[in-house]
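Q: Sequence in, structure out?
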Amino acid sequence: MENVRNPELVDVLDVFKREIFFSLNCHAIGTIQSFDAASQTCKATINYAKTVVQTAVNGKNQSVPKAYPILVNVPVINLFGGPSGITFPIAKGDTCMILFNDKDMDNWFISGDVNAETVSKRSHSLSDGVALVGIRSKRNALTNYDPTKSVWFHGSAKVSLSAEKLKIENAIGSLMPTLEAIINDLKNLPVTYLTTTPTNPIAPGPATPALIANITANVTKLKGLLE
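A: Exactly. Output:
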């Protein structure tokens, strides 16, 4: 026969503590369902189910998975500081980290006031989440991650920044071969070049060695900044 004892205070407090934890929202991995560029808000779903305790027909409590509701009007975090910032074309299917605010943030989000009063006693509520887009699972990890450079990419276009140089490339290739071709062409520049005059908008003029040397030096200087 199963031993049954009356619950003690510690048992009641333990159940109460677990109920608080079940209802508390801190951080969650989510997926963007839609993005509104005008308001910089999104709709997002949480990528796992929450556990609720229900009483079964036999009278025993059991844990049951339950899907979270779709989160709406979730502000998206954009990186900025002072007059500078960077934005991304956020799209459906992007994964994000949803951070739930300690208090009701409705008034602040509407007005932006520093001392905006809370309109309810919500705490760690599903209604007060913000989305930080960009977290990825192992299965969807970025390929060819460069551990030595800061990289900004959009499709096949890529800008890589190292401590000393900048690299610009796309599906066609890098900018550097183009600059090298320009330098080679300058070295073989003919003795005349096209210029403009008041009487003749396009007229041939002399290509002096000094001019060619100056152009070559400037392009070479640019080459020194790129790779």
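The mean pLDDT is 82.
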